Amino acid sequence: MATVEEAARGVVAALNGISYLLAAQWVADRYKQVFAKTRARHLRRVEQLYIPAAINTGTATFTRDSDIVTGNAAAQAVWTSDLVGRYIRGSIVWYKIITVLPGPQLKIEKKFAEDTQSAVAYYIVSRFNALPPDARWVGDGIVAMRTRRPLQKLSIEELAIEAPARDRVGAQASVYSEGQSVIDANGKVCKSLEIYPYMTTSEVYSYVVYPAPPKLKLMDQLPPEIDEHVLREGALVDAFRFKMAQAIEAGQIEAAATWRNEMRTQETKWKTWMDDAVRADRGVDDLTFILKRANSPITSRDDITNAYDYVMSRWPR
Length: 317
Known about the structure:
By secondary structure, the chain is an alpha+beta fold.
C-alpha cells in the first residue's frame, strides 16, 4: 500500500529543488482538502454514547433571583462534581449547573427566574452530551442499544418547536438532535447530541461518526480508497507555486510566468482528480442498498416509524 513518502517522492522526482519533507507536507494537505468537505466513507466509525440517568433523589430549594440551589440531605448525598455541565429543573426552566459548592449546593449559570420553590422535587439531566473531539459529522441513524430502537433525527430548531420546555423526563427516548458545542473533560470543543425525552435510567446509544481528516505523516499509509497519484497531482500545484515564488524572488519574471501557467493548468486538473477521489471513496451509495432490498434481512420489526416502514408494511408478503 502506498505511503505519503512515496507520493512525495513522485513530486521530488518531477521537480528539482523540492525537499521530501516539504513535498510530504503538500501531499498531506491535499488529502485533507479532498475529504474536508465530504463525509469520507473510509474514515467513518461506529461509536457509543453513554448518557447517565436523570437524578431526582431528595428535594431542592430554588429562590427567585438567586443562582444557588440548596438540597436536602438526600439530595446532597448524590450531588457531586460530576454534575457540572448538566441541567437542573425545579419548576419549568432548565438551568445549567456550573459549580458544586460545599454543603453541597449547586451554582447555576443563570439566576432562578421563577417563583421560589421550597423543598420541591427536581430533575438533573445530561442535556448536551459531548461527542469525540474529531467528530465532524454524525450519521443519520442513532439506535438505543438496550431497547434496539432507532431514534428519529430532528434539527435543533425542530426540537425547539416540538418541545420548547423539554418537559418530559422518564419516557422512552424517541428523537435526537445535534446540540450546541460543548467543552469535554479534556478542555476540547466538541459537538454534542441531545437525546429526548430524558431518561431516568442510564442508556447507551450507537451511532456513526465521520471524523475530520487526520494529518498524515511522512511514513503513514494512504487509505486504500484514494490512489497515490491523485495526491501527487494535487501536491504538484503547491510545487509549481513554490517554483513560481522562487523565480519571482530571483527576478526571473518570464520563468515565474511559466510556473504560474503550469500552476493554473494543474489546478484545473486537480479539481477533476478531487471529484474522482470522492467518488472512489463513496463507491456504491448506501441509499442504493436501501432501494434494492425488498425488506430488512436481519429484522422483522413491525413498528412503523418512517415512510420506508409504511411502504414496506403494505408490500405483499
